[in-house]
Amino acid sequence: MPRLGMEPIRREALVKATIAEIGEAGTLDVTVNRIAKRAGMSSALAHHYFGGKDDIFLAAMRHVLTVYGAEVRGALIMAADPRSRVEAIIRASFSDTSFRQEVIAAWLNFYVMALSSAPAKRLLLIYQRRIRSNLCHGLRPLLGARAGGVAENIAALIDGGYLRQSLGQETVDGAKAIEIVMQYLDLELERGSA
Amino acid sequence: MPRLGMEPIRREALVKATIAEIGEAGTLDVTVNRIAKRAGMSSALAHHYFGGKDDIFLAAMRHVLTVYGAEVRGALIMAADPRSRVEAIIRASFSDTSFRQEVIAAWLNFYVMALSSAPAKRLLLIYQRRIRSNLCHGLRPLLGARAGGVAENIAALIDGGYLRQSLGQETVDGAKAIEIVMQYLDLELERGSA
Amino acid sequence: MPRLGMEPIRREALVKATIAEIGEAGTLDVTVNRIAKRAGMSSALAHHYFGGKDDIFLAAMRHVLTVYGAEVRGALIMAADPRSRVEAIIRASFSDTSFRQEVIAAWLNFYVMALSSAPAKRLLLIYQRRIRSNLCHGLRPLLGARAGGVAENIAALIDGGYLRQSLGQETVDGAKAIEIVMQYLDLELERGSA
Amino acid sequence: MPRLGMEPIRREALVKATIAEIGEAGTLDVTVNRIAKRAGMSSALAHHYFGGKDDIFLAAMRHVLTVYGAEVRGALIMAADPRSRVEAIIRASFSDTSFRQEVIAAWLNFYVMALSSAPAKRLLLIYQRRIRSNLCHGLRPLLGARAGGVAENIAALIDGGYLRQSLGQETVDGAKAIEIVMQYLDLELERGSA
DNA sequence: AATGAATGAGGATTCATTCAT
DNA sequence: GATGAATGAATCCTCATTCAT
């Protein structure tokens, strides 16, 4: 059955399987074999296309970040004023795509992976910087010098939403999570610029 | 040289070694052998005292939570009014004992461990509930019905401080981290009760 | 681009690539993939032409022996008297074609391969017998019954030259290696026939 | 059944099993599993005591060299005059201990291993230097400046004996091999010093 | 109380080889 | 004629865990 041009298909299947598997297990302690099996191929092929386990994880992480980034960018297109720019980012963070059990589990695991893996750390920092920058860009006109700190806090509240969702017994829905962060945003906006 | 009552000494040594080792590696992927070695004993003895690797991790986790809880309680003793109760918890969270590389790394790893280990999850939830409860207790007189949400946000900001400390390139000092959370607290207090 | 009569071209390319690869690695632990890559084709094609890895090695071995044999024969054509027959073989053994890093490495590896591969052993013995025979043919008129032993010793000294070249830190040049064996030959000739 | 002080016993068993296994297979392509099994233990234990496959091979090689060296030294003790010093080395080289199928196979394999393994090469060179030095020491009083070259040739003839034994169809016995080298030695001695 | 000894189980990785196109 | 696709089979190695002493 080997057709031509399978590489991108296989890679995508592996990335998705990786996220699913991590989400299911809650750990990075997932065998390449399981991932490959779930992606419908042998582990040898997975190695062939990615080189090694870490590379598979990195690719999966990159995919999560890419999708999230795309969604943020998409939402930003529609944003007319500064405030709605910030809102766009917050909403994208809790969209149905990103705010799902398995994706959240992947997120947390990658955060921890970044503690011991230089490439993972690099990737995470790039993404973090981008998000902060986007947030600041929206907040600066409204809050001036306070923009940086508030951006940081918004990021923390978003992470907090993820954590609660993953560990909490109660399943939070995205809308509720968005509301919480938005309330904080409003509070800061009321206070005004420094 | 086996003396009487070695058990508590051994256990403590293992728990400390575990935290140190996790902090150093940034992962739970630490061998029992290394932990035992660092604690000055054979891995067989570690198993003898704890039963298995998971139990060692659980004990280490319990220790981290216990120390943190004790520090919070200690700070609460000195708190006269509601606001300072809340402040006490925040300050304790960033004390020199808890806000250290290795302890933070352990924290994050335990968070992720909770995704796949029921006992770990249980432990974490108990502690979370206690902290939230303490925060609410202090916030209720000041914020009324809004206390719960604000408590949650404060918790999120504290976690945010930990994350920034562990992953960020710049080392944050405890005082700065405290200030950030306090500013948020003041903002909410200005706004007043619902 | 498949043209007619590609087979001999492909085979030759593979054989040369095999020798080069073995020479570079110093081992038979060379993947078919690398060999094929170096020969400018896919490993599947290599299998198509040779059947399997061992066959590739055998072919490479055969090639080394063939080239060496040809050179010996070529030198023998010019040899007028018995002594120069022997000399011709010795000189051919250290010619620029055979006395090269990669060829020597291949040689040694093939020697060892003969320990575990019957076809390789057969091949090697055929060649050895031919060389001994050639040497004897030249030595008999000069040394009589002693020819056989001396031929054996000359062969050993040639192998010794190869070993020194491959393992020694100092690079020996062919001329020096030839001289060593010739000195031994002279010594035996001085002594005369038995 | 675990008793104390097993390490040296296990190591020795592994070294012997390694040589036997290599001798039987004719290759270094021998699995750690087989070696360990032959030595009566699990492969995990083999790794525990040696670290890795290469280390096992190196240890085996070191053992072969050590035994050979000891035998040479032993023979040298009995040597009264220079000539018998040289003779001692030659005889030791073909003693029943060293001149055995399996040991010879190990030798050849290690020669080839030295082409690609730096530690193996180092080991081999040390041994070679020692043997050459011993030979020279005995030859110098007899041959003066020619000692070095003759030593080299004797070494080559010894290697030649090994090769013939391993590849040849006819089994050579040690006595015959010794005689061949001794004849060469006599020839050089007749000729005298330079 | 304490440990060296020992192993089973499992996992990442590699590679020769096959096959459909 | 040629290759990308694919895999089964092996192999090294690690590690938690057990046990006799």
Can you summarize this structure?
With 194 residues, chain A is mostly helical.
Quaternary structure state of the chains depicted: homotetramer
Q: What's the tally of helices of chain A?
A: 9
* Strand/helix succession of chain A: HHHHHHHHH
Count interface residues per chain for the largest interface: A-B, 37 and 37 residues
Could you give the count of β-strands of chain A? Answer: 0
The Rg value of chain A, from CA coordinates, equals 19 Å
Can you tell me about this structure?
By secondary structure, chain A is mostly helical. Helix content of chain A is 78%, strand content 0%. The first copy, chain A, contains nine helices and no strands. Chain A has helices at 7-25, 32-38, 43-50, 53-77, 82-93, 101-116, 118-143, 147-167, 174-191. In chain A, α1 (7-25) crosses α6, α2 (32-38) packs across α3 and α7 crosses α8 (147-167). Chain A is elongated. The model of chain A has no long low-confidence stretch (mean pLDDT 93). Chains in contact: A-B, C-D. The structure holds a DNA duplex (21 and 21 nucleotides).
Give descriptors for this structure.
DNA-binding; 9 helices; mainly alpha; 194 residues; 0% strand; homotetramer; elongated
List the helices and strands and how they pair.
The structure is a homotetramer of 194-residue chains.
Chain A: H1 7-25, H2 32-38, H3 43-50, H4 53-77, H5 82-93, H6 101-116, H7 118-143, H8 147-167, H9 174-191
Chain A binds a DNA duplex (21 and 21 nucleotides) through helix 3.
